């Protein structure tokens, strides 16, 4: 039992790294995903094809490989760019590259969710907006977007939890700098020290479960806020589908 | 021109590259065997979840929700280590003499005789089972949902023909279920194929590990860089000879 509490306190700073990765990538990925989803639905052939290719590439390849690719790309550009500019310590830092790759990755998954929701926005609502003489920008802001975000929110919540789970592999692909270790690296180091696999990995799993539940709770609050106009508030499913 | 072709032919067929091409077998093996295990564990889990006995139902529900609630990489690393340690612990209770336990200085195993040395094939097999366990939890959910969407009339008809419960399950329920399960299962298999990129974390020399090694100049810089980041300086070591 002592070991358990000891692990809890050892991993408390470690979970902050995972939370940092998720907290930085979620808002940026959200904004990027909105543009990607609009791009995928765009009638412009070039924009359409570019967004489709981007989404396909990032959803079709493992995140682990994406980390490796972007890290070696950044390394190979080091002598040409980062070093002369004096930013290599910043650009090559895992706390920068980690969120960068996570943003690019989660934007592709989120864009697919938003694109699906965009196509599910009721046709009649948009026609009504056109009939009122709204400009395209007004249509999007007042009709399409509120419908889209309500339709997409439950799936987006799952995606956010998945992104939080994906932060577990950041430090397997990127170098650990000093004592900046996330949950998985802390657990792995502890296991390598005393071989107590069951204890250390279970505590790390508890942390992941706890933060996932907090995410579900917060996003559930936002969902009920989004749905406040409906008399019978549909609760978000407490048992998530965990699938992307 | 012909010189170029000869150079590239020679370069792409040197020993390291041939070893890299050969390592595809491990990834493909893990994907195929892991996919098969995922379906087996998925069927088992869904049957447990559908069971009439509450304890069995609880086991099925716990399996699918806990394994899906933690990152795949955590369980993927945990299972092979935990399985190995459990076997070693069991062997130790049978063969370790008190003297041997007293003579053991390392934290694990309890005595030297109980040590279980795993070869690369055993590790690959454990990794495949591990992948199967992780994605079997996803498959449990998919198959459970598919079993619930089989029309009740078909099961009633089977019962009306006088089939026993196990006959209804095997001859009608499971066979009618595939139509609904296959789209979801193909999703699970796609996730699993992407997750095979994590094999290198268990020190299996798969395509990812070789790709990483073949970028050896990068790797040198990575090592040099990660040791010097504290000083804020980035060493640009040229591609020196490495152990591989």
Q: Notable features of this structure?
A:
heterodimer; A: 244 residues; mainly alpha; MetI-like fold; 11 helices; B: 244 residues
Q: What is the arithmetic mean of pLDDT of chain A?
A: 91
Kindly report the name of the CATH homologous superfamily of chain B: MetI-like
Overall CATH class of chain B: Mainly Alpha
- The CATH homologous superfamily of the domain at 19-177 in chain A is called MetI-like
Taking the sheet with the most strands of chain B, its summary is: none
Radius of gyration of CA atoms of chain A, rounded to a whole number:
21 Å
**End-to-end distance of chain B, in Å?**
31 Å
- List segments of chain B where confidence is low: pLDDT < 50 over at least 5 consecutive residues: 218-244
Largest sheet of chain A, in brief, is: none
Structural shape of chain B: flat
Mean pLDDT of chain B: 84
Write the layout of secondary structure elements.
The complex is a heterodimer of chains A (244) and B (244).
Chain A: H1 2-40, H2 45-60, H3 63-76, H4 78-85, H5 88-91, H6 94-120, H7 123-131, H8 136-166, H9 170-173, H10 183-194, H11 197-226
Helix pairs in contact in A: 1-2, 1-6, 1-11, 2-6, 3-6, 6-8, 7-8, 8-11, 10-11
Chain B: H1 2-12, H2 15-22, H3 24-49, H4 54-69, H5 72-95, H6 98-103, H7 120-148, H8 152-160, H9 165-195, H10 207-214, H11 216-228
Helix pairs in contact in B: 2-10, 3-4, 3-7, 3-9, 4-7, 5-7, 7-9, 8-9
């Amino acid at each position: 039992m002592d070991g358990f509490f000891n692990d809890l306190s050892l991993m408390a700073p470690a979970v902050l790294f995972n939370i940092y990765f998720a907290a930085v990538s979620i808002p940026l990925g959200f904004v990027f995903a909105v543009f990607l989803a609009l791009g995928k639905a765009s009638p412009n052939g070039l924009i359409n094809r570019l967004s489709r290719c981007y989404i396909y590439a990032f959803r079709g390849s493992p995140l682990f490989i994406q980390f490796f690719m972007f890290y070696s790309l950044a390394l190979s550009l080091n002598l040409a760019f980062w070093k002369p500019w004096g930013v290599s310590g910043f650009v090559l830092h895992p706390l920068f590259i980690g969120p960068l790759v996570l943003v690019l990755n989660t934007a592709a998954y989120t864009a697919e969710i938003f694109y699906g929701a965009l196509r599910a926005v009721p046709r009649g609502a948009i026609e009504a907006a056109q009939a009122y003489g709204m400009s395209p920008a007004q249509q999007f802001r007042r009709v399409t977007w509120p419908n889209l975000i309500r339709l997409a929110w439950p799936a987006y919540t799952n995606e956010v939890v998945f992104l939080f789970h994906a932060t577990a592999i950041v430090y397997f692909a990127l170098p650990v700098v000093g004592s900046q270790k996330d949950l998985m690296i802390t657990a792995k180091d502890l296991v390598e020290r005393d071989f107590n696999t069951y204890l250390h990995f279970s505590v790390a799993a508890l942390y992941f479960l706890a933060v996932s539940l907090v995410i579900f709770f917060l996003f559930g609050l936002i969902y009920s806020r989004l749905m406040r106009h409906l008399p019978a508030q549909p609760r978000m499913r407490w048992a998530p589908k965990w699938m992307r | 021109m012909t010189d170029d072709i000869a150079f590239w032919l020679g370069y792409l067929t040197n020993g390291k590259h041939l070893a890299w091409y050969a390592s595809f077998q491990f990834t493909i093996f893990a994907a195929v065997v892991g996919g098969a295990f995922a379906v087996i564990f998925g069927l088992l889990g869904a049957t447990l979840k559908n069971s009439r006995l509450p304890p069995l139902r609880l086991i099925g529900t716990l399996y699918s929700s806990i394994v899906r609630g933690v990152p795949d990489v955590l369980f993927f690393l945990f299972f092979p280590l935990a399985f190995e340690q459990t076997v070693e612990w069991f062997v130790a209770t049978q063969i370790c003499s008190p003297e041997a336990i007293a003579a053991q200085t390392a934290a694990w195993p309890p005595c030297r005789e109980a040590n279980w040395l795993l070869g690369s094939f055993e590790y690959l097999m454990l990794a495949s089972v591990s992948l199967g366990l992780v994605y079997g939890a996803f498959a449990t959910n998919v198959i459970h949902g598919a079993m619930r969407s089989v029309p009740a009339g078909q099961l009633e008809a089977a019962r009306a023909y006088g089939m026993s419960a196990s006959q209804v399950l095997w001859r009608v329920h499971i066979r009618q279920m595939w139509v609904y399960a296959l789209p979801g299962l193909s999703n699970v298999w796609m996730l699993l194929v992407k997750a095979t990129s994590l094999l290198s974390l268990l020190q299996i020399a798969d395509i990812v590990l070789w790709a990483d090694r073949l970028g050896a100049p990068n790797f040198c810089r990575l090592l040099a860089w990660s040791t010097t980041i504290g000083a804020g300086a980035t060493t640009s070591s040229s591609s020196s000879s490495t152990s591989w």
